[in-house]
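Form 7-S
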Amino acid sequence: MAKYVIESPHTPEECLKALDETLAKGPDILEKFVWGCAAQGDHTGWAYIEAENKEGASAIVPELLREKAKVTEVNKLTPEQIKSFHKG
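Output:
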């Protein structure tokens, strides 16, 4: 399974519907997200998940926001990998 970071921006007008759609997917999906809406007025949700592929990762994003969402596969790096980049 690959790891993904999801950034899901939305407007203030889309906010409540996006939250409701996320909650409707289940509390386990809601738990994967953190939100900037209430804290800073930055209407964005972020999630860090494991999924089989990018399409599977994007499936947790509310449907009305999928086109705007950014799904990025991410990896951790070891010190050895970073050192090897210098040899490249």
